[in-house]
Amino acid sequence: QGLVELALRPSSDKSQPPSQRSMVSLLLLVLSAPAAISALEQQQHEAAQAVANPIRKVVTMLQDMQKKVTEEGAAEAELYEKFMCYCKTSGGTLSSSIVEAKNSIASLTASLTASGEKKAQTVADEKEHQQSRSEAKDAMAKATALREKEASDFAKEKSDSTTNIAALEKAIAAVEKGIAGGFLQSNAALRLRRYAMEKADLPDDARQELLAF
What we know:
This protein has 213 residues and is mainly alpha-helical. The chain has one domain (2-177). It is built from five helices and no strands. The chain has helices at 2-8, 18-177, 180-184, 187-198, 204-212. The model is unreliable at 1-8 (pLDDT under 50). Keywords: Signal. Residues 116-140 are annotated as: Disordered.
């Protein structure tokens, strides 16, 4: 303690001998050494911290990134597993639906084809029936016209036959009564001549003899 007091005493005191002043200086140096070492260590520690902090920051960032990537990978793996499970469960239903749709399309196509063919056949049959009906109507009209003509011809022929028969009856009666001269001037005689010339089925000599009468 005395040395400390001595060391703390001002060095400008001229009453101290030189040896004592040297000891005081040495003592001051020894006393100040721990403080100097502590300050140096503090500076070294601060310098080390200054160097270590950026590295630690980068390491921390990398660790955080690694953790995030790991979490994202786990989430993606979970989603993938769910998706694969969905594909497995819904794939069979989807395949079945596709098969049913294909079968329905094939059936519908066949039905449409059959309907088209049936419609085409129906149209062809209708055209054929229309043609047959038209042909039947034409044939009926021709037959009707022919029957009408035949009826007209028959009526005319019947009228001519009736007239000719009447003329023959008159001629026969006139010849039998001896009044053939008066008969020859009548219309009945004229019609009888015409009939003998055009239509009567008589030998030529008989026709000539009748016309000469």
